[in-house]
Amino acid sequence: MPGRVAAAASAAGRSVFIVGLEGFADPNVIAAWPHVYFRMGAMRGIFGALREHGCQDLVLIGPVRRPSLLDIRPDADGARMLARIGRAAFAGDDGLLSAVIRVLGEEGFRVLGAHEILHEALGPRGLLSRAAPDATAMADITRGIAVTGALGSVDVGQSCVVSAGVVVAVEAVEGTDAMLARCGALLDGLEMTRPIGVLVKSVKPGQDRRADLPTVGPETIRLAADAGLAGVAYDASGTILAERDACIARANERGLFLLGYDPETTETGS
Description:
Largest sheet: 6 strands, mixed
Number of helices: 11
Number of domains: 2
CATH class of the largest domain: Alpha Beta
Number of strands: 12
CATH topology of the largest domain: Cytidine Deaminase, domain 2
Distance between the termini: 28 Å
CATH superfamily of the largest domain: LpxI C-terminal catalytic domain
Mean pLDDT: 89
Radius of gyration: 19 Å
Helix content: 40-55%
C-alpha cells in the first residue's frame, strides 16, 4: 500500500519522498523511491529530512506496532513532541494518531489520508465475491456492526468475529491478523460447524480518517478462511481494500463472501 500511494502521487505530478521507520518499513517498497530511514524517536532528523526535501503534504501509511517509551528513545525534538501529545500517548490508537496529526500540523505539515491520493483505495459498497451471505451471516454482520461500534467508541479496536450471534473475538492491541489466528481454536471450543462466522471491520465513530483506517487485504481473506469463517464484511465508508483484485480472487478461491456495508443504514447491497 505505501508503494501504491507513492505511485499514485507521482502519477498525479507530485514529488515523492519517503521516511521509513526502522523496523517497520519494507525495504523492497522503499527502494523504488527517494527515501531515508530513521528510528521512530528521531524527530529532529525526520523533520529535517522532510523540510530539506520540500515536503508539505504527508501521508501516514503502513503498519506500525505501538512501541514502548524505552523503544522510542526520543531525541530532544521527539521528547518535545511527546510532551505536546500529552496524555493521548497513553490513549487508544485513534486518540494517539489524532494527536500526532495535530502536532504535525503545528509543525507546518498537512496530513492527507491515503484515500485522498489513491482514490480507488477504499473498498466499494456491495457484494464483491461469488459467494453471498446467508440469513445467519447477515444477522452476524448486524451484530458485528454493533460490537465494533461499541469498541470504536472507546477507541479499542476496529474488528470483531461473530458466529451464530456469539461474539467469538474482538480486536485490541494485537491487531486483526492475530485475532483471526486464534479464532479457529475458539470456534472449535464452541463446537460450531464450519464455515460459519463473519469478520466485521468498521471505522471507529468519530475517527480521524487521515490515519489508521481499517484495512482488508489478501492475507486477511486467507486468515479468515483458515479460521473457518464464512466471510468478511467491511465498512464501505472508510475501509482500505488493499489489492482489490487479489482479495476478490482469494475470496472466490476459498469460497468466502466479501461484502462492503453501508454504516449509515447497515444495508449491504446484497
